[in-house]
Design a protein that fits this description.
Blueprint lengths: L1 H12 L5 H15 L2 E2 L2 E2 L8 H11 L4 H17 L9 H15 L3 H20 L26 H11 L3 H13 L3 H5 L6 E2 L4 E5 L5 E5 L2 H12 L10 E6 L5 E3 L2 H15 L6 H14 L4 H8 L4 H7 L4 H11 L2
Helix pairs in contact: 1-2, 3-4, 7-8, 7-11, 8-10, 8-12, 13-14
């Protein structure tokens, strides 16, 4: 009711006041109408810790801990540097902030658009929860950036990486399951022994938004997993555990994303291969699958993508195959 009243007053006054005066009027009306009513004081919703409240809402929706931490860092920086109450920031103020953010951090348009999306999600939540009347992000559109298809690993690079990792039964099993299944590293660390079926060579993973899907691995991965599991003497249900660090009850602890990223990064340094990281194995699977004729819809399902456009960005189709198809279907 209060929101409707404010909008009616704004419509009546829009020809009488300048944009800045209209903004001030809106702020005053919001402050007064949401604080008191004709019947006396109304219970006023606290605007303290809005970022914390927002993150709590995202957590309930299934947001991962890692994503939550990133949202928190972006919003904390925004709150500190926007220069006004976050509920009073208008579109121009946020545009100025994004421009300054890119200059200060020297970031790409891709990173800047990620910040924009987080702010858009935050202000949409503020609007839905009636902390603000209208999100100032509605007029700030997607920031265009060149789509760069990052290269997959070559067959030679894959074998070099596998050879370097083969000194550890655990590490070679990790490399092979990343290569053959295309799962995310965040999905990998959540795998339990009960998540995999060695007979059918399948594993059940929980992706973004706690979405469950079935994915597959090859015979070579099955053998490496069997070899690794034979070395396990602990009772931890986690599929991959730290080899040294033990918990209070004496069992080895579950591997973390940071541990796997460091292990794979170290392999890249040893083998003198640039940009060796978990996500590149996922991209390699997508590229190889499409090059060998797997329908893009099946690759999308395999990777757990909601939109097929995301799958296309992962796939680096070989130029030789494009030429062959051109000669086959066009010439």
């Amino acid at each position: 009711m209060n929101a409707e009243t404010i909008n009616r007053i704004k419509v009546r006054m829009e020809n009488e006041l300048s944009p800045s005066q209209m903004k001030n009027l809106e702020n005053v009306l919001t402050e007064i109408l949401y604080e008191t009513s004709a019947n006396g004081a109304l219970p006023r919703r606290s605007k303290k810790n809005l970022v914390k409240q927002f993150l709590t809402a995202k957590r309930i929706e299934g947001c991962s801990k890692r994503t939550e931490e990133y949202y928190n860092s972006v919003l904390a920086f925004y709150k500190k540097n926007i220069g006004c109450d976050i509920c009073l920031a208008d579109t121009n103020k946020i545009r100025e902030y994004l421009t300054d953010y890119q200059k200060i951090n020297n970031c790409s348009n891709v990173t800047l658009d990620t910040v924009r999306r987080i702010l858009s999600s935050f202000y949409k939540w503020l609007e839905e929860e009636d902390f603000i009347l209208k999100s100032p992000m509605k007029r700030i559109h997607r920031i265009k950036a060149p789509i760069v298809i990052k290269p997959a690993f070559s067959d030679e690079q894959v074998e070099t990486i596998r050879k370097s990792a083969s000194k550890s039964k655990r590490n070679i099993a990790i490399i092979d399951i990343l290569l053959s299944s295309g799962i995310r590293v965040s999905e990998l660390v959540r795998l339990n022994r009960s998540s995999i079926n060695l007979n059918t060579r399948t594993c059940t993973v929980f992706g973004k938004g706690a979405k469950q899907r079935l994915t597959y691995f090859d015979v070579r991965t099955k053998i490496e997993l069997e070899n690794y599991l034979k070395t396990r003497k602990d009772k931890n249900n986690a599929l991959f555990v730290c080899s040294r660090r033990k918990s209070k009850n004496g069992s080895y602890t579950r591997l973390t994303v940071n541990s796997i990223e460091k292990m794979i990064r170290d392999i890249g340094i040893k083998t003198n291969i640039e940009n060796v990281h978990p996500h590149r194995f996922r991209r390699t699977l997508a590229t190889n699958a499409i090059d060998k004729g797997m329908p893009i819809e099946q690759v999308q399902f395999l990777l757990g993508h909601t939109k097929i456009d995301t799958t296309l960005r992962y796939a680096n189709v070989q130029q030789a195959n494009v030429r062959y198809s051109h000669q086959k279907f066009i010439c």
